[in-house]
TrEMBL record:
This is GTA TIM-barrel-like domain-containing protein. It comes from Kitasatospora aureofaciens. The lineage of its organism: Bacteria, Bacillati, Actinomycetota, Actinomycetes, Kitasatosporales.
Length: 307
C-alpha cells in the first residue's frame, strides 16, 4: 500500500469543495491508496457506548469521498475511529460493562462494514488503537465475524506500536496493522542513516512476528510533524514550537528505505494530508502534512519517479 490518510473532523468535510483537489494532490505523490476516518465519540473511558457528534463525517459525505477517490484512480481504506469527546488517548477506553460496549461497537463497525461494501472500498480496519479492549479476544472475534458477514474485502486492525504483540485475534484478520510511531532518536536528528539504524532492530522484530503469524504487516499509520525533535516522539502533535521540515523528510526517507524492499511488509498509509480549510489546530508548517514540504519530494522520489 502506497497510502495517505485524509481524516475528517467535521460532518461535511468529505463533501468539501476541497476534496477533489486533495485527492488529486495525493495521487500526484504516487500514492495509490487513501484512508478515511469517520469518528464516533465517548464522553468517558468507561461508558457503555459511542455516539456521533458534529465532528463525525456524515455517511453521504463518506460515500462521496470514496466515489471521488475511485474517480481519481485511488483505492480506499475505511478506518473508523472511536475517540473521547474531551480529547485524550483512545487507548484509555476501558468499558465498565464490556458486553454492552462490544454490542454497541459491533453496531458501529458493522455500519461502516456495510457502507464499505456498498461503495466498493478496497479495505476495512475493524478498529484503531483500542488497547484498553483489544486483549479481549472472544469479544473481538465475534465483532470480526459480524463484519465479515457484511464485507468481503480484506480486514485489518490498526494496533498502536506498543500494542500489536498483545493482540489475540490477528488470525481472524487478513493483515496485521500497526500505527508505527516508534521513537527513533533521543534528540533531534536530520540524519536518515541514524534513523535507519534505529529502525533495524524494530524491523527484525516485525519480520519474526510476521513469520510466526503468517500475515503481512501494514503500517496503518506512520507520520512525523515538521517540528524539531519529531523523531523522538512521532506520536506527538506538539514536540516543539520549532519548525523542522528537514527532520520530517529524513524520517520519511528512513522509513521507506528500511521497509520498502521487505517481502513481509504490506506498505504504509501516512498520517496525514492537509487539514480542511479552517479546521486545523496545528499550523500547516508544524503539522503532520508533508504537502509542500521536502517530505512530499521524498514520497515522489519513492513512489512517482520522474515527476
Amino acid at each position: 500500500m502506497r497510502g495517505m490518510t485524509l481524516p475528517a473532523w467535521n460532518t461535511d468535510d468529505y463533501n468539501s469543495p476541497q476534496a477533489t483537489t486533495y485527492l488529486r494532490q495525493i495521487a500526484a505523490t504516487g500514492a495509490r491508496w487513501v484512508a478515511f476516518t469517520p469518528t464516533w465519540y465517548q464522553d468517558r473511558v468507561g461508558d457503555p457506548e459511542m455516539h456521533t457528534t458534529d465532528e463525525t463525517a456524515a455517511d453521504d459525505s463518506l460515500r462521496n469521498i470514496i466515489r471521488l477517490a475511485h474517480d481519481a484512480g485511488l483505492k480506499t481504506m475505511v478506518k473508523p475511529h472511536v475517540d473521547l469527546t474531551k480529547g485524550g488517548d483512545r487507548a484509555r477506553i476501558k468499558p465498565k460493562d464490556p458486553d454492552a460496549w462490544f454490542a454497541a461497537y459491533e453496531r458501529f463497525i458493522t455500519h461502516y462494514a456495510q457502507l464499505a461494501a456498498d461503495t466498493g472500498a478496497e479495505q476495512l480496519a475493524v478498529g484503531t488503537e483500542l488497547a484498553g479492549t483489544s486483549q479481549d479476544g472472544p469479544h473481538w472475534s465475534k465483532v470480526i465475524a459480524a463484519v465479515r458477514a457484511r464485507y468481503k474485502g480484506p480486514l485489518t486492525y490498526a494496533a498502536n506500536y506498543d500494542e500489536y504483540q498483545r493482540i489475540p485475534f490477528w488470525n481472524d484478520l487478513d493483515v496485521i496493522g500497526i500505527d508505527a510511531y516508534w521513537p527513533l532518536a533521543d534528540q533531534a536528528t536530520t540524519d536518515p542513516a541514524q534513523l535507519r539504524r534505529a529502525w533495524q532492530p524494530i524491523a527484525d522484530q516485525l519480520a519474526a512476528f510476521s513469520g510466526r503469524l503468517q500475515r503481512k504487516i501494514l503500517f496503518t499509520e506512520a507520520g512525523y510533524v515538521s517540528q524539531r525533535g519529531t523523531t523522538t516522539a512521532p506520536y506527538s502533535w506538539t514536540v516543539s514550537k520549532t519548525e523542522d521540515d528537514a527532520e520530517q523528510a529524513a524520517a520519511y526517507e528512513a522509513l521507506l528505505d528500511t521497509f520498502d524492499s521487505k517481502p513481509w511488509w504490506a506498505g504504509v498509509c501516512w498520517w496525514m494530508w492537509d487539514d480542511w480549510p479552517d479546521s486545523g489546530e496545528t499550523a500547516k508548517n508544524l503539522a503532520y502534512t508533508p504537502h509542500g514540504k521536502p517530505a512530499e519530494q521524498v514520497l515522489r522520489k519513492w513512489w512517482a519517479p520522474g515527476t
